Each structure stands twice: as structure tokens, then as C-alpha cells.
Amino acid sequence: MRVAIRRLRSMIRDFAEIADKFPLRSLRKRLKALADSLGAVRDRDVFAEALAIAASRTDDPTILECLNAYIKELEDFRRSSHAALVKDLSATRMEDLTERFDSAMEACVSQRGLFQVKSVDEGADRIITKCAGDFARAGDAIYYPSSVERLHRMRIAGKHLRYSLELFSEFPPDRFAPFVDSMRKMQSNLGEVHDCDVWCVRVRERFVEQGQKKGPDSAERETAAWLISYFLRRRTRAYRSALRLWGTLDLDKFAAKS
Predict the structure, then answer these.
(1) DSSP letter string over 52-66?
(2) Residues of 48-75 as b/e, b for ≥16 C-beta within 10 angstroms?
(3) How far does CA 242 lie from the centroid of its chain?
């Protein structure tokens, strides 16, 4: 559901490239709020799964006990996040969002200047070229392995490019067609890098910073050190894969006309 909203928000951004006035823009905040609510649930699911996989990599009883306790905490947090999500997905709120969306779409398609592009091919070329240019400009982040924010912005730009390529899969400009599979792989690698960055912060907050408030706990510190080391190994593998893949991309074609 969250991915579907991401794709919808991406399509709204794409549509803005060929529309003079853009009533759908007012819906983007509402969609983002819903995506954030979904993310609060889904992020805990993914993190709990990552911790469970990590637990299968160790037979240290002290670390396993801390990991199992943390997974239980995440399950409790997930229940509260899911309760908030249920409210956001109530029939009343969904009906209101649907009505607003339909009204905005009607206003969009009635614009005189909407069809300023002569064909879907031309529209695809304009949209994908812009997204490709954004990704190419953000791509220098790949040479800054410790820059979490820069790599995150590169990931977001790459995600938008990937969604646009998939949206116009039947009409991609020839120079971008070879990049579709590469962008899927790049997104997978950059997504893993981002997840590991976020997880390392959560581990530090849970096992180190909270521990400083209630007093030192050697078991929790040992668990934090082991977990961060584990996630850093995962991050390094994903980063190296992204770096190798970046070296295979024809940046001249990415930068063309952008």
C-alpha cells in the first residue's frame, strides 16, 4: 500500500511537468501524511525482520536475549502505530480523499494547455529526461560513502527515475531503455544502504543512549556493538554493489538534454 502511494505521488510529480496549472498539488501533503502513517507500521516490520535475521547469525545467549526483547518491543510499538493507521484509513477519510482526487483530476484534464506535448512519447521523453538529470546530478553522492544525507537524496532521485521509467515502460526514450534494469538494482542497493544507516541509529538510541540514562549495561552494549558491526557489513556489501553499478552507467546519456 505504501509503495502504491509512492508511485502515485511520483506520477503526480510527473504530471506536473506537462500541466500548466496543477490542482493535484494540494493532494500531495495528504498522500504524504498517509504514506508516513503506513511507514510507521511497515518500517517496524522491516526492522523486526532484519533483527530476526541478525539473531539467526549468532548463538551468543546474551545477544539473543537482548535481540528477542527488542523485537518484542517493536511488536508493541507496531500495534500502537497500526491503531493510528486504522484511523487514517477510515471510510470517511478515504471517501474525502477520493472526492478531492476526482475533483482535482477533472480540473486538470480540462486545461487548455495540458496537451502541450504532441504525443505520449514526447511527454515520456520530457519527464524521464528531467528525472534522469536529477539523478545524474545527485550521483556524486556515491563517492561519499559516509554521507548519509547525500546518499539518501541520491536514492530518492533514483527512485523517482525508476518509477518514471516503469510508468512509461511502453514509451521510454531509446537512450534510457537500457537503464530500466540497472535502476531497479541501484534502488535495491541504495535502499539497503539507507536501511542499514537508519538501523544503526536506532540500535545506538536503544542500547546505548537509553542505557546511559538508566545506567550502564554490559549486555546491551555488547549487543549494540555486535548489531552495528553486522549492519555495517550489510551496508558495505550493498554500497560496493551500488558503486560498481554506477561505474557501468553511461552518464552522458543520463545527462543528455537535461
Answers:
(1) HHHHTT---HHHHHH
(2) bebbeebbeeeeeeebeebbeebbeebe
(3) 16
Question: Which grid coordinates are listed for 219?
Answer: 549486555
Per-residue pLDDT reduced to its tens digit, 190-202: 999 999 999 999 9
Burial label, 106 (beta-carbon count in 10 A; 0-12, 13-18, 19+):
exposed
Residue 149, exposed/middle/buried by CB under 10 A (0-12, 13-18, 19+)? exposed
CB 227, CB 54: distance < 8 Å: yes
* Phi then psi dihedrals of residue 176, to 5 deg: -105, -15
pLDDT tens digits, one per residue of 98-156: 988 888 888 777 766 666 777 888 888 888 888 888 999 999 999 999 999 999 999 99
